[in-house]
Amino acid sequence: MYTGQTEQPCCLCADDDTVARLDLPPRAVTLMRNADPIAWRDIVGEVSIHFCESDWQLVRDLVLEMGMLPLSRCNVAHASFSLREDFEALLNATRDEPDQTELEGRLLARSLATIDDPDAEPQAAVQARVVVHALDELGVADDVDVDAHAVDHA
Ligand SMILES: [Zn+2]
C-alpha cells in the first residue's frame, strides 16, 4: 500500500533511522524506482522521500557537487504521499482530476529562489536543485533557463 504513509524509511537503503527529507512535486515519482503502479496525477500535495545519515551525505554530494539527480535510485515504495482516493473517501465527494501545474509552478519558483539564495540551508539547497532538475528532466521547466541557476547537466 502506498497510501497515507507519513513515516517512511530511507528511500535508498530502507534504514528506519532517517535524518533528512526532500519534498517533491508528484510528477517526480515517475523518475523513481518502482514508479510504474503510481498514478502521479492522483497524488495530493507533495511527495516526500527520506534519507538515512550516510545516504544523505552521498545524495548531498551528488546533487551539490556533481549536479546529479539521485531519484532513479530512490524506491518510490518508501516515499510518503497521499492519493486522491483517500481524500475523496474522507470528503465523500468526487473532484476533478487535480491540476498539478500550479503546485509544480509554485515549487519551481520557490526552488529557483532558494538556489539563488547564498544563505540557504544545505537541505533546502539540495531539495531546490532536485526539484528544478527533476522538473527540467520532465519537460516542465522548459521556459526556465535552468543553467542560469547553476544546475549542472553533465
Ligand atoms: Zn539509507
Structural summary, described in words:
With 154 residues, the chain is of the alpha+beta class. It has one domain. Helix content is 33%, strand content 14%. The protein is built from four helices and three strands. The chain has helices at residues 53-64, 84-91, 101-115, 122-137; strands at 18-24, 43-52, 80-83. A three-stranded antiparallel sheet has the order 1-2-3. The longest helix is centred in the last third of the chain and has 16 residues, at 122-137. It starts with 17 loop residues before the first strand and ends in a 17-residue tail after the last helix. The model is unreliable at 1-5 (pLDDT under 50). Bound molecules: zinc ion. Residues 10, 12-13, 15, 51-52, 55 line the site of zinc ion.
Produce the secondary structure layout.
Layout: E1 18-24, E2 43-52, H1 53-64, E3 80-83, H2 84-91, H3 101-115, H4 122-137
Antiparallel strand pairs: 1-2, 2-3
Helix pairs in contact: 1-4, 3-4
